[in-house]
Specification:
globular, 316 residues, 5-stranded parallel β-sheet, TIM Barrel, 12 strands, 9 helices
């Protein structure tokens, strides 16, 4: 079984290394059927959305019939969806924790405001650098990484009600640096400890009720930062037990990694108990089968209506 689709894709519009058109050409070369672009809108990485939107629309027209290009963004939990008008889908991702007392707990930030430029934005980044992560943990959480991760998952648990995303990105990004050696600042959490798992499971329990898929994000594995995709094995197994849905994403910042670690992710999904994964497609029309397709919540097909999730069975 091969997955020929990816919906978490970055380009030179944000922090990717290749132009959008070069990524399209690589996807076609790899035999892809679907490609979703998801440029960053978050406090750490922000792109020129109007230029991005214009270019992806151009590519959709130019390559129609060769590749189904879906125009999305990766929107941070701190931002209001008004910041990205007209996209077909967006990934809801949590890269930051509002510090205790921050008003971002209560409100999203609307279009035009770039939080990174505001030193009083009240946000604590979790994936910038391991040094910053430790500094922020000491400053705001008394050096207690379990308290920090609990606050992360508390904020993550609000992502559907705050943002209404198409799917949830890298659920446990708080562990990005955890695979580093102790000497290099890693191993600050035990990912099998109840102190870590309890608030994470609580967030999963809340989010799974929205019927929004979670991505198995291979980005950190592709870049040699982690041995397992997000969510980690314990959380992935629990997500399966409570009826969660998944898709597999490479979180590609290089065109060569568009399908990076997909085979390994499928094996992990199967090991966790999943029998299928999902891909995001346009209206299947006469092919519609309720056992295979379902409407994708919070999506907006530019050709009218919504997008659909298609089940892809994992081989026995």
């Amino acid at each position: 079984m091969e997955i020929k689709a990816n919906y978490h894709t970055h380009t030179t519009f944000c922090d990717g290394s290749d132009t959008a058109e070069d990524v399209v050409k690589e996807a076609i070369k790899k035999g892809f059927t679907h490609l979703g672009f998801s440029g960053h809108i978050d406090p750490g990485v922000r792109m020129d959305f109007s230029e991005y939107d214009k270019e992806i629309r151009r590519l959709q027209k130019c390559y129609k019939g060769k590749l189904d290009i879906i125009r999305g963004v990766e929107l941070d939990n701190a931002y209001d969806p008004k910041a990205v008008p007209g996209v077909e889908y967006y990934i809801g991702s949590t890269h930051f924790i509002p510090v205790p007392g921050s008003e971002v707990w209560e409100r999203t930030v609307e279009n035009g405001t770039h939080l990174e430029t505001d030193p009083d934005s009240g946000l604590c980044g979790v994936d910038g650098s391991v040094e910053v992560l430790h500094d922020k943990c000491k400053k705001y959480f008394n050096g207690d990484f379990y308290e920090m991760s609990a606050r992360y998952f508390e904020f993550e648990s609000l992502i559907c009600e705050r943002m209404s995303p198409a799917f949830i990105g890298h659920f446990d990004l708080i562990t990005r640096f955890n695979d580093l050696s102790k000497e290099d600042g890693g191993h600050f959490l035990s990912e099998t400890s109840e102190n870590y798992l309890r608030p994470a499971r609580k967030a999963l329990d809340k989010l799974v009720r929205y019927g929004i898929p979670f991505e198995m994000n291979c980005g950190a594995v592709n870049r040699g930062r982690k041995k397992d995709a997000y969510p980690g094995p314990e959380l992935l197994k629990y997500l399966c037990e409570i009826g969660g849905e998944i898709l597999i994403s490479s979180d590609a910042h290089q065109k060569e990694l568009l399908d990076g670690c997909f085979e390994e992710a499928l094996a992990s999904a199967k090991s966790a108990g999943f029998e299928h994964v999902n891909i995001l497609v346009r209206n299947p029309g006469d092919k519609y089968d309720a056992g295979i397709y379902r409407q994708a919540k919070n999506t907006r097909d530019s050709e009218g209506g919504c997008l659909y999730w298609e089940k892809i069975k994992i081989p026995e």
